[in-house]
Amino acid sequence: MSISDTMIEARIKDKIPDAEVILEGEGCSYKATVISRSFADMMLIKKHQAVYASVNDLIASGELHALTIKTFTPEEWQKR
Predict the structure, then answer these.
(1) How far apart, in whole angstroms, are the C-alpha atoms of residue 32 and residue 24?
(2) Domain housing 17
(3) Cα–Cα distance measured from residue 48 to residue 52, given in angstroms and rounded to the nearest whole number
(4) The domain spanning residue 10 has which CATH number?
(5) Across 3-63, where does the E strand assignment appear?
(6) What integer is the mean pLDDT of 47-59?
(7) How many domains does the chain have?
(8) For residue 22, is it within any domain?
(9) What's the whole-number mean pLDDT along residues 19-46?
(10) Domain annotation covers residue 33
């Protein structure tokens, strides 16, 4: 089964419902920018763990080989 942007975005939003997800890539390698209010009081590693948890089975199966993650709160994103 081939993964798609839509599948990855849906999985992230399932675990982080308020997330805005911006994906780049194709095939089995993606870059994800995830913006969520839930990241406000989290350390960077916890933010990344939250995103990885949503796609962990795809990584374990090899369907998703690489996912580079950048996380922001809405306020951090606005300042960029």
Answers:
(1) 7
(2) 5-75
(3) 6
(4) 3.30.300.90
(5) 20-26, 29-35
(6) 95
(7) 1
(8) yes
(9) 95
(10) yes
